[in-house]
Every structure is written in structure tokens, then in C-alpha cells.
Write a structure and sequence with these properties.
The complex is a heterodimer of chains A (about 550) and B (about 150).
Chain A: E1 19-22, H1 26-41, H2 43-62, E2 69-70, E3 83-86, H3 89-98, E4 105-109, H4 117-128, E5 132-136, H5 141-149, E6 154-157, H6 162-165, H7 169-186, H8 194-201, H9 206-209, H10 213-232, H11 246-259, H12 266-273, H13 280-306, H14 317-340, H15 347-368, H16 371-376, E7 387-395, E8 403-411, E9 429-433, H17 460-493, H18 501-520, H19 536-548
Parallel strand pairs in A: 1-3, 1-4, 4-5, 5-6
Antiparallel strand pairs in A: 2-3, 7-8, 7-9
Chain B: H1 4-16, H2 22-30, H3 38-61, H4 68-85, H5 88-103, H6 106-137
Helix pairs in contact in B: 1-6, 3-4, 3-6, 4-5, 5-6
Subcellular location (chain B): Cytoplasm, Cytosol; Nucleus
InterPro entries (chain B): AHP1-5/YPD1, HPT_dom_sf, Sig_transdc_His_kin_Hpt_dom
GO biological process, one term (chain B): cytokinin-activated signaling pathway
Chain lengths: ~550, ~150
């Protein structure tokens, strides 16, 4: 991946990177600033006013108060300073909102007194669409996973080394490449989307292994094109990136509400929003973030309710976070597939895809049906441990004629009535109901690294996988809205008068999530988590919904 | 006038005795003409900021019963901060403290915190002496790596 990637502007580009560092620890703030400067991110600033900067440092060091914002200056008015530090997450967010185009990348501590770093991360992802690097002295897997789930592009452990910062520009660069590529794919150039889905959400080296020489060439072209307009001058970088202003976001939300959650799709939203320069891809990517955001909100509510939900004590919040995180990131990947129309579902995501697809069909039935349908399901949760075996064989257009075969056995827990009906998929695939293994094996025969697919033109696979993925997205939404609807119904209809409405609602969600975990990752028996107040059938709806959403 | 050898051996002993780790060398490598006293600046900043954490920890440890979550949060911050100057022994004590915290061991927490404060103060004295010596020798002396 190196050859076509980095060379053109290694010297020029990173020097102008505008970094916002957020940490409540003034010592680290100072060290990081110095390191970033040394990484030449502030070279230009040195040339234009180093004496002033040095003075600024001295006073800064003497007068640090936690919570004060230390602005080192911004691009504009003839002065170019590039590293901004901030001791408070809320202030950082304000800074970012004030100048949506003022930064290229954010480095944030995880633990801050005024706002969880993860929350900041989420806001930045949703509102500014900037790459965020998290840092912490703790490297617990669950924490890192949480960071990735919230959209962090990297997670650095303190003490942070200079060499780790030296390459952070790659996150900015990568993002721009993807944006450029989205832009180009809009004009009919398909087929070089592998990198995006691989690098953003996963460390799997395999994504790079399937790169193709024509892709390389192409990327180089992309590089060349953006050399001038993208990176040379920071003010002209916004060609492909959409800044979601409050207004624009409001329009978006309005459109979503108007269409209704169950019918929402990027195209419809785009039509309703009526913003000429916006592309379907822009909307799709924002919609995807918006969904993640909503699911985060739900989860926060659930967490609040753990204190009130005595029945849930079996679930240590930490565990549920971890597993939930895993799913979410997996799902994000899947959504990415949708956005990018990735021609070939690659190992990890494809496994999720396969699962999700079979869900999708079930859900289709369930969602489109009325409440009574779901109520009815209550009495009929009695499938004897059916296992649906799904195998996907996607022939690739490659010289070697190599195949990627995804084998996926999904154990259906007894509660899921609808699972007994074989899902209908649009992809070429064979389904054999069997009851062999209870795990989820994914067998992947990775194609030879040299050549994988034709890089132009949409293959049939491309189209179908795109369709499928888009469909799944559609269902996410419908499920969310559906569940929302159910909440209300259930709450109104049930006789729980003792607890405040809010708590009940959260409580309900948590239950859903628990079930969801059982389904996706663990093999714990479900019934013990059922709340007798609610219909179990409703849970099956909820948890499947969460599985995707 | 302190000799270079004196300074070098003083620094080396801080590493040998386990007070400092390689992060300290990182800081020295960051020192340049723009910030000739960078290491000292950072250490000063560290001691100023962490004293705040020490006193909140003192207060938190007087509560009954102990709020272990709060203790852990403060100590997490303290540990992160201590990692910035490479305060190896202090950091190790932080880790121990957090283990006691997770185990709900109030006695262990208190004992560990007392030990932490001792290490914290000892390191401060040693670093102060070191910087004083280094200042006498001239501005560039501190930029040498220990052998």
C-alpha cells in the first residue's frame, strides 16, 4: 500500500496539518504540542512568528488553569498556527463548532472531568466528520473497543511517543482519499473501495492483501489530482467533504422525520432536503452516523437505567459495553459497504453481512407486519434449535479465477420463530438447512494479492451487494422506529404504574440489548432475562433490531 | 562548576535506581533551541498540576466509606500525568493503588497512597538536584542521552 499512497506530498502536506489536542492534563498537553511541532505540523508557524510562539509557551506554562482554553491562533489573517490545545472537552467542542473548517484532526484524552472523551468523539464524528485519535494511560481491550466503536481512527497509549504522532497525518489523508474516491465513484469510477472499508474500521491486514495493481495506479491518479487542490492550500480542501452545519443537519433530521423512519433512505432524504450540491453519498454517510448516534443515545439511557433495574444485575455494564461495541463496529462496517458499494464483501464484514442478511429477511416480515403479528409470536417461540446454514460463494472476476467463499452457520436460539423460515437473499448463494455445528465458522479463501477484480464498471455482484446492504440499512431504520413505536405502546398498555415512564423505557431497551448479545455473541439462555411484564415476542423484535441498528 | 560526567552519572543513577523510565529521555529529545529547558518546564508543570490531584486524593481517602470509583478516577488521572515525565516508581505505585481499589481494599489503598507520596517527594528532590546541577553546567548538557 505504500507505493501509491504517501509519496507525493510527504514533505508538504503534513506540515500544514491543523491539530486540536484535548486533554485535561496540562503536562501532556504541553508535551503533545511540542511533539506535534517537532513533527513539523507547525513549521509554517515557526517561520512566521516563532518568537511570539515561544513567548506564548512561557506564559502558557506559568498560567495554566484547568479548563481554560489555550488558543495558539488559527489559520487566517496572514498567520498560520496549526496546533491548538484545549484543557476542557466542552470548550473543545465549542471551538470545533465555531470553526468547522478550522481543524483537520483531533487528538483527545479519554478521561476528562467535564465530558467523557467518547462523547466528544461522537459529537466530532457526527457534526464535524473529522478523524479523532483517542489516548489514555489505560489500554484495556474494552476501552479501546469502545473508542473504535465510537469512531476513533486510532487509540494511543500514554506515554505517547513522538514516532506515533509523526504519522497521524495519514488519517487525514486517508479520509480525503476516501472522500475523493466517493466523489469519483459518483462519476462512474467504481472498484477501488477496498481500502476504505478496510482501514477505517479494522486492523485486518487482509484488506490490503487483496489490493490490485490497477487500484494502485488509480490511487496514484487520485493522489495526483488532489495534490494541488486538496493539500497545498488548507482553505481549498473542502471539495468533497461536506460540513454538516446545524442548519444542514436540521434539514436532514426534518427530512428523516418527514419520510418516517421505516421508509428512510439516502435518496429520499436527498430529494427532500433539496440541497443541490449534496450527493447521495454525503447523505448516506451522514445517515449512517446519525443511526449510530441514535443507538448510542439509546445505550446511554440504558446505562442510566441499570441502577434502577434490579433484575439486570447479572449484567456487568462493562461486559455489555464490550460486546455491544463489537457489534456496533461490525455493523458500521456493513454500512460502509453500503455507502461504498464494495464489490466484494471481505472476510470479517462479510460474515456480519451474511448474518445480517438473513436477519433482514426475517425482519422484513416482522417489521412490515402489524402489532398483532408480533403479539402472536409470543406463544410460538418453539423452534427446536434450528440452525440455518448459509454459504455464500461470490465468484470474482479475477484472472486466477479465485473464489471467496463465506460459510456461515447461524445458530438460532429457540425464541426466534421467524428464523425457521429460510431467508431470501438476492445474492447468489446456496442455503442448506442443517444442524451441524453451533459455532459461526467463517471460511475464507482470500484471493491472490495481485489481482482481484476489474476496477471499472459495476459487476453484477457489486450491484447486488449494494442493494442488499442498502436494504439492510433501510431495515435498520424501520426497526428503530418500530421499536420506538412499541415502547410507547407497551408502556401505555402495560400496567407498570409504579416506575416513572422514562426509567421503564430505558429498562426495556437494556433488556433488548441483553437478548441481542445472546443472539450475536454468547450462548447464554435467554429466558431468564425476560421481564414478565412484557411479552417475550417483543423482545425478539427488539433484539434483532438492535443487532442491526 | 559541575562536570559533565557528574551530571551524566547523576542522571544514570536515576535510571539505575528505577526512578525514571525512557519517557524522560523522550522529553530530553524534545528539548531544542526553542525550548532549551523543556524537561525542567515539564517536570515543574507536572508537580504543579499533580499536587492538586494529591490533595483531592487526600480528601477522598478521608471519606467513610471510601468511594472506590472516585479514588480510581483520581488515580487514573494521576497515573496518566506521571507517565508524562517517566516517573517510573510513582507510576508503579499508582498501578498498585488501583489494584487495591478494584479489590475494595481500603487499608491497601491508604498504605499504597502513603508510599506513593513518599516516592513522589523523593523523585522531586532528586530531579531538583539534577536540574540544578545541569543548569550550572550549561544549557545543552541535559540533552545528552544516558549511556
Amino acid at each position: 500500500m505504500e507505493s501509491g499512497f504517501s509519496s507525493p506530498r510527504r514533505d508538504a502536506f503534513p506540515a500544514g496539518l491543523r491539530v486540536l489536542v484535548v486533554d485535561d492534563d496540562p503536562t501532556w498537553l504541553r508535551i503533545l504540542e511540542k511533539m506535534l511541532k517537532k513533527c513539523s505540523y507547525e513549521d509554517a508557524a515557526y517561520q512566521q512568528g516563532s518568537a511570539e510562539l515561544v513567548d506564548g509557551w512561557v506564559s502558557y506554562c506559568l498560567g495554566f488553569e484547568p479548563g481554560r482554553v489555550y488558543k495558539k491562533g488559527f489559520v487566517g489573517r496572514g498567520k498560520t498556527h496549526f496546533v491548538t490545545t484545549c484543557g476542557l472537552a466542552r470548550e473543545a467542542l465549542n471551538l470545533l463548532r465555531e470553526r468547522k473548517d478550522g481543524y483537520d484532526i483531533v487528538i483527545s484524552d479519554v478521561n476528562m472531568p467535564d465530558m467523557d472523551g467518547f462523547k466528544l468523539l461522537e459529537h466530532v464524528g457526527l457534526e464535524m466528520d473529522l478523524p479523532v485519535i483517542m489516548m489514555s494511560v489505560d489500554g484495556e481491550t474494552s476501552r479501546v473497543m469502545k473508542g473504535v466503536q465510537h469512531g476513533a481512527c486510532d487509540y494511543l497509549l500514554k506515554p505517547i511517543r513522538m514516532k506515533e504522532l509523526r504519522n497521524i497525518w495519514q488519517h487525514v489523508f486517508r479520509k480525503r482519499i476516501h472522500e475523493a474516491r466517493e466523489f469519483e465513484s459518483h462519476e462512474g469510477l467504481e472498484g477501488i473501495h477496498l481500502l476504505r472499508s478496510g482501514t477505517d474500521q479494522s486492523d485486518e491486514g487482509i484488506f490490503f492483501a487483496v489490493e490490485d495493481m490497477t487500484c494502485m495506479k488509480k490511487r496514484k491518479d487520485v493522489d495526483g489530482k488532489h495534490d494541488d487542490r486538496e493539500f497545498g492550500d488548507p482553505s481549498s480542501t473542502k471539495k468533497a467533504r461536506v460540513v454538516w452545519s446545524v442548519d444542514l443537519h436540521q434539514k436532514f433530521v426534518k427530512a428523516v422525520n418527514q419520510i418516517g423512519f421505516d421508509k428512510v433512505g439516502p435518496k429520499k432524504i436527498l430529494d427532500l432536503m433539496n440541497v443541490p450540491w449534496l450527493t447521495r453519498e454525503n447523505v448516506a454517510s451522514h445517515l449512517q452516523k446519525y443511526r449510530l448516534y441514535l443507538s448510542r443515545l439509546q445505550k446511554e439511557n440504558e446505562q442510566k437505567s441499570t441502577s434502577s433495574g434490579s433484575k439486570l444485575s447479572e449484567f456487568p455494564p462493562k461486559d455489555s459495553q464490550a460486546t455491544f461495541g463489537f457489534q456496533n463496529s461490525a455493523i458500521k462496517q456493513q454500512n460502509d459497504v453500503a455507502v461504498d458499494s464494495l464489490p466484494l464483501p471481505l472476510p470479517l464484514p462479510s460474515h456480519d453481512n451474511a448474518e445480517a442478511k438473513s436477519h433482514e429477511c426475517d425482519l422484513k416480515g416482522m417489521v412490515s407486519d402489524s402489532t398483532t403479528e408480533k403479539r402472536r409470536a409470543l406463544s410460538s417461540r418453539s423452534i427446536p434449535d434450528t440452525k440455518i446454514r448459509t454459504s455464500l460463494a461470490l465468484p470474482l472476476e479475477s484472472e486466477g479465477g479465485s473464489h471467496a467463499v463465506f460459510d456461515c452457520t447461524i445458530p438460532a436460539t429457540t425464541q426466534y420463530k421467524t428464523w425457521s423460515e429460510p431467508p431470501e437473499l438476492k445474492l447468489k448463494k446456496e442455503r442448506t438447512p442443517s444442524s451441524s455445528s453451533s459455532s459461526l465458522p467463517v471460511h475464507v479463501a482470500p484471493p491472490p494479492p495481485q489481482r482481484v477484480m476489474a476496477s471499472t464498471g459495476e459487476s453484477p455482484e457489486t450491484t447486488s451487494s449494494k442493494n442488499l446492504a442498502m436494504k439492510t440499512q433501510g431495515f435498520n431504520v424501520s426497526l428503530i422506529s418500530d421499536m420506538d413505536f412499541y415502547h410507547k405502546n407497551i408502556l401505555l398498555g402495560s400496567e407498570v404504574a409504579c416506575a416513572p415512564l422514562d426509567e421503564d423505557l430505558h429498562f426495556y431497551w437494556l433488556q433488548g440489548e441483553c437478548c441481542n448479545m445472546n443472539l450475536g455473541l454468547q450462548n447464554i439462555e435467554m429466558p431468564e432475562y425476560y421481564d414478565p411484564l412484557y411479552d417475550s415476542s417483543d423482545y425478539s423484535i427488539v433484539d434483532q433490531g438492535l443487532f442491526i441498528a | 562548576m559541575a562536570s559533565r560526567r557528574q551530571i551524566a552519572s547523576m542522571k544514570q543513577s536515576l535510571f539505575d535506581q528505577g526512578y525514571l523510565d525512557e519517557q524522560f529521555i523522550q522529553l530530553e529529545e524534545l528539548q531544542d533551541d526553542a525550548n532549551p529547558n523543556f524537561v525542567e518546564e515539564i517536570v515543574t508543570l507536572y508537580y504543579r498540576d499533580s499536587s492538586r490531584l494529591i490533595s483531592s486524593m487526600d480528601q477522598a481517602l478521608e471519606r467513610h466509606p471510601l468511594e472506590f470509583n472516585r479514588l480510581d478516577t483520581i488515580m487514573h488521572q494521576f497515573k496518566g500525568s506521571s507517565s508524562s515525565i517517566g516517573a517510573k516508581k510513582v507510576k508503579a505505585e499508582c498501578t498498585l493503588f488501583r489494584e487495591y481499589c478494584r479489590a475494595g481494599n481500603a487499608e491497601g489503598c491508604k498504605r499504597s497512597f502513603q508510599q506513593l507520596k513518599r516516592e513522589y517527594a523523593t523523585l522531586r528532590k532528586k530531579l531538583e538536584a539534577y536540574f540544578q546541577l545541569a543548569r550550572q553546567a550549561g544549557p545543552h548538557e541535559t540533552a545528552c542521552r544516558p549511556k
